[in-house]
Task: structure prediction
Amino acid sequence: MEIMKIYEKIDHTQLKQTADWSSIQKLCDEAIAGGAASVCIPPCYVAQVRAYVQRQIPICTVIGFPNGYQTTAVKVAETKDAIENGADEIDMVINLCDVKNDSFDKVAEEIRQLKKVCGFRTLKVIVETCCLTKVEKIKLCQIVTEAGADYIKTSTGFGNAGATVEDVRLFREYTGENVKIKAAGGIRDIETAEALIEAGADRLGSSALLKR
Result:
């Protein structure tokens, strides 16, 4: 696979709690030079990045990150704030407490509410696969599809495991045709990236592949 075809699928990511402005600037410069799909950054930097990149690249940020157990009202407020500050794409973390309580209706309603706020902007739903059973993964594929999200995303990168080829294949089998897949977590080399794309990933979350 051509290297540029991989680069254009990358959400170049810096979500460390200790990320300073110089590291965010470097991330943006690398993403623009490499032709990445977006930069994925902490919400506190969205407005600053919007001014810095001057619409040269889409801005992605995270909501309910990394644990997802904030209330829906909090996530809605976070999303509105991120969009007002200039975010083009939203990566939300589902409430795994609801999943483990078999309250999938609450998960679906939360996704619907955030998609309503996002409107035409892209909404990606992080399900944190390392915390899920196969049955839960399949159910969440169905919920993400029915709730109208644009992507299902494997991982925050803060869990105990990241994207796997097996999970991407499972998602491809059970999500609707309008739902894309973002593989994230542990993607540090081109070979892994290629394998995930071949399995069905449309986007990759990585902090390593565009490093200069």
Notes: The two ends are 20 Å apart (CA to CA). The chain has a mean pLDDT of 97. Residues 104-118 form the longest helix (15 residues). Residues 90 and 123 are 5 Å apart (CA to CA).
